Amino acid sequence: MSSFRVKGGLKLKGEITPQGAKNEALQILCAVLLTDDLVTIHNIPNIRDANKLIELLADMGVKVNKIGPDSFTFQADDVNLKYLETPDFLKKASALRGSVMILGPLLARFGTGRLSKPGGDKIGRRRLDTHFFGFQKLGAKFEYDAAQEIYKIDGQNLKGAYMLLDEASVTGTANIVMAASMIEGKTTIYNAACEPYLQQLCDMLNRMGAKITGIGSNLLHIEGVKSLSGTDHRLLPDMIEIGSFIGLAAMTQSEITIKNAQIDRLGIIPDTFRRMGIKLEFRGDDIHIPAQDLYEIETFIDGSILNISDAIWPGFTPDLLSIVLVVATQAKGTVLVHQKMFESRLFFVDKLIDMGAQIILCDPHRATVIGLERKNRLRGIRMTSPDIRAGVSLLIAALSAEGTSIIDNIEQIDRGYQYIDQRLNALGADIVRLD
Ligand SMILES: CC(=O)N[C@H]1[C@@H](OP(=O)(O)OP(=O)(O)OC[C@H]2O[C@@H](n3ccc(=O)[nH]c3=O)[C@H](O)[C@@H]2O)O[C@H](CO)[C@@H](O)[C@@H]1O
Ligand SMILES: C=C(OP(=O)(O)O)C(=O)O
């Protein structure tokens, strides 16, 4: 288990370029299984989850070649389906959440798929029902071996169908879209997730020869095709990393410019930080955050306390609520953070309270933060990172705190933020990795 030693209280300054998007990478990497042609992907972040998925694909027989610092080619022309039965596959697949999206491509292309319970953050119940409901609608047979925790999915001659998803699951929609793109007939998915990463996946599949319309909406139409061909794809900048850097700049009173942020794909994220009183300036496609002594959280029009909650896209992503929460600890004003999707994502506030923050955890889903207005600094402490986004929030808290903090279990942070210590140190932070 590795740790970060973080010296607090330093102001950062400079430019930072966001990495390629983690959650897009996981969808796009799985899509390489849909064709025996060459697929080239650029801007792949060097993070644990992407690397583990690339390794898994290689173990399945996909030919993987690194052709640039963040560019890879993939060719799935000789997939070893027998490998799916091995304990090695089941162990590796369960190490990350994104591996679940190999099922759709495997089903469409080979009529079969196997997976052990996928990993990812322990941030509450993370059911997969929507994925299997969708596959079943297409005619697949689903079996869950509870003793071994293995999901089995089989189905030759699948046929397109109409389906109304029980929830707009992000990875579920990606999985069903990939399965439906290469089977007979027309599939309609209503209540589909529609976030930018899914739009990117659908655009990529269309470039490969798929026929998907309704992209960007919650009603997708997919006309199945017989085969898909190779393509070239570039991942978007990671919007969660961008939000994290906005929060970091505000908390540490730093002047930071986030380069090439693809602002048009960030949805409601910039305005949500603006509601917290953080000044953001768009300079072309860069986001400039000036050093701010104090930021004041808005109230609602009637004067009542601001409530920031997550919602499916185009609502505010749940992955940035932990950042919002930590940023609020030094603001002027009060905010109610309501994490509707996940029931275990707010427990990390006890660490912020130990650091001196004023937070009332109302219940597992809601926390009220009363900003300290910088009258008191947070204090550096030793703490453990429970999940990827709480981990980065604790890192932001530690960077703004008085004294030194140790953050343990930083493998969680490494899951989704590439070279975060080196990149922030280049802006003037003092973070030491202790192995
Ligand atoms: C690898 C990946 O891409 N992970 C992301 C993906 O996870 P993932 O695809 O696993 O998340 P889902 O969209 O399936 O659902 C997330 C949670 O929200 C609940 N839910 C979902 C939809 C809905 O309409 N109502 C509802 O309550 C689900 O029951 C579940 O507990 O999307 C999540 C929601 O944006 C993000 O937090 C994850 O970072
Ligand atoms: C929860 C997240 O990731 P995963 O779905 O991979 O656990 C996240 O990226 O915030």
The CATH C-level name of the largest domain is: Alpha Beta
Q: How many structural domains are formed by the residues? A: 2
The quaternary structure here is: single chain
| Beta-strand percentage range | 15-25%
How many distinct beta strands? 23
- What class do helices, strands and sheet pairing give? alpha+beta
- Rounded to the nearest angstrom, the distance between the terminal CA atoms is 7 Å
Mean pLDDT: 96
Helix content: 25-40%
Total number of helices: 14
Bound molecules: uridine-diphosphate-N-acetylglucosamine, phosphoenolpyruvate
Describe this structure in words.
- With 435 residues, the protein is of the alpha+beta class.
- Helix 6 runs parallel beside helix 7, helix 8 (239-251) runs parallel beside helix 10 and helix 10 runs parallel beside helix 12 (388-400).
- Strands 21-22-1-23 form a four-stranded mixed β-sheet.
- The protein folds into two domains: 3-19 and 237-434, UDP-n-acetylglucosamine1-carboxyvinyl-transferase, Chain, CATH 3.65.10; 22-234, UDP-n-acetylglucosamine1-carboxyvinyl-transferase, Chain, CATH 3.65.10.
- A hairpin with a 5-residue loop joins strand 4 and strand 5.
- The chain is globular, with a radius of gyration of 22 Å.
- The protein has helices spanning 22-31, 48-59, 87-93, 103-110, 129-137, 170-180, 196-207, 239-251, 269-275, 321-328, 349-354, 388-400, 411-414, 420-425, and strands at 3-7, 13-16, 38-42, 63-66, 72-75, 112-116, 141-145, 150-154, 162-164, 186-190, 211-213, 219-223, 231-234, 255-258, 281-283, 286-289, 306-309, 334-338, 358-363, 366-370, 382-384, 404-408, 431-434.
- It contains 14 helices and 23 strands.
- It starts with a strand and ends with a strand.
- The longest helix has 13 residues, at 239-251.
- It binds uridine-diphosphate-N-acetylglucosamine (UD1) and phosphoenolpyruvate (PEP).
- Uridine-diphosphate-N-acetylglucosamine binds at residues 23, 26, 97-98, 124-127, 167-172, 312, 317-319, 341-342.
